[in-house]
Each structure stands twice: as C-alpha cells, then as structure tokens.
Amino acid sequence: MDQDDRIEIYTxxxxxxxxxxxxxxxxKTRNAVETAILLSVLLPILLSLELSVKxxxxxxxxxxxxxxxxxxLGVQGESLFAFIASFFQxxxxxxxxxxxxxxxxxxxxxxxxxxxxGGRKRRGKEQGRAAEAAxxxxxxxxxxxxxxxxxxxxxxxxEENAASQTKKRRVQRTGKRTE
Length: 179
Known about the structure:
This protein is mainly α.
C-alpha cells in the first residue's frame, strides 16, 4: 500500500461551525450580548464614582470582572439573565411543606384501623387452623366463657363498639348527628 491509497480520518469537534456562537463556538451569542449590556451599565457607574484611579481599578477587579466572567460563561448552561429569572420564578412559586392537616390524619388513621382489624381476623383464623392441624386447643376451647358468650350473641360486641366509635367520629368531624 502506498501513502496515496491510505485514507486519513479527521475528527470534527462538536462545536465546529455551531450556529449562534462567537470565537469558534466558545461563547454563545446571547451570553456575549448580555455581557455587553452589563458592561454598558456597570462601567459608567464605576467611572462616575468619586474615588482615586487605584480604588476604581480595585473595585472594578472585585466587582466588574467576576460579573463579566459569570455573564460570559453563564450558569449551568443558561445565560446569566435566564438564571436570575428562573431563580426569582422559583422564589415566587416555591411551596412550603407544612404538617399534615386533620383531614389527612383522619384518612391515615382509618387505613391503619382497617389494616389492624383485618390483620387480627386473619391471624385468628390462621392460628385456629394451625392449632387444629397440630392437635392443640384453640382459644375458644381454652376459654369456655368465650364460647358461652358466642352462644348468647355477645360475640359481636367488639363490632358494635367499633361502629359506635365511627359514629362518634362523624359527629366530631361534621358536628351533626347521623342516625
């Protein structure tokens, strides 16, 4: 193979001939315009101050140069003015997290109560089945009074108590009695 037959590969940088940039893609046009606006406003203010030339130079280095660099580079991919606008928009629209209100707590407590009630019933059935399978006594066999109460119809006293508590909560929440 001769040198003439060989194909040379050149990599093209991503910012080559990029539209809307200055200095070979290093500075965006918007940032350059914003920098010119800032300089046209801040430089006359700095020159109009009644300070010595040395003090004006120091003040320019401390204030003007960082602002100009920030305006040329931008902040996180945005121009300086766009960043300032989004910052004030954030301040205006931000939300503050507060403790949950009473309505949220009521729904959360109801969910917990349902889970607790459902969990107890399931556990009771599962324990009874496990005890029967193992040949052990169940809770009802251990407590004969519980069997008597079940025969008398007192077994549903817990459910009636839960229903009365629900009615009390409704009265507290709405202020009206519902019967």
